[in-house]
Amino acid sequence: MASARYHHAFFVTEDGTWGSSEKIHDLARIFLHAEEQTLQTMSGYNASYALVFIPDELQKFNWIAQIAGFNGTDYLAVSGTTYEPTELGSQTTLLRLAFDEAFHPTRFTKLFDNGRGKIFRVNC
Question: In the chain, what are the domains?
Fold first, then answer.
């Protein structure tokens, strides 16, 4: 199973927006859904790219899961500064993108990775 420091991501629409409360809830749900379901929601925002950041703040995944109405520990096991997706977590878009070397996302193509951030193109 893949493990790494926590990853965080944003989906950016063509007009560069992602802001309202409704969009934030949609964004959180996008992260926790499987790729096929994620693409349906992303298409409603005309999102073409996913940007994944690797910050030092370790609690963000649990907050994202909570906003989406899920329990983060069902998806990601934490041991100190090491994070490992659970079986359920390995099916989520966010963790498939964050741990792309292990989980190989099928609907996203990685365009950039500098160790602090990754950019993926959405393959609809």
Answer: 8-122 (3.40.50.12610)
Residue 124 scores a pLDDT above 90? no
Q: Report which DSSP code applies to 87.
A: T
Query: How would you classify the pairing of strands 8-13 and 108-113?
Result: unpaired
Predicted pLDDT at 58: 44
Q: Yes or no: say if 122 and 93 are a contact pair by the CB < 8 Å rule.
A: no
Query: Does residue 95 contact residue 82 with C-beta atoms inside 8 Å?
Result: no
Give the residue from 17, 19, 43 showing the smallest Cα distance to 30. Answer: 43
Q: What are 49's strand-pairing partners?
A: 12, 121
Task: Give how far the C-alpha of residue 14 lies from the chain's centroid of Cα atoms, to the nearest Å.
Answer: 18
Angle 10-15-17 from CA coordinates, rounded to 5°:
45
